[in-house]
Design brief:
Blueprint (H helix, E strand, L loop, with lengths): L4 H31 L1
């Protein structure tokens, strides 16, 4: 299967977004646990 370049770029960007979002959530949870 060959994907168009645009699709690949969008997919990689989406992966970066999800990774950063999950990282942020984990970090926030860690901070909250420290406060508690």
């Amino acid at each position: 299967m060959k994907y168009p370049k645009m699709y690949i770029i969008l997919n990689s960007e989406r992966q970066k977004m999800t990774i950063s979002c999950t990282y942020r959530l984990k970090y926030r949870l860690k901070n909250i646990s420290y406060i508690l």
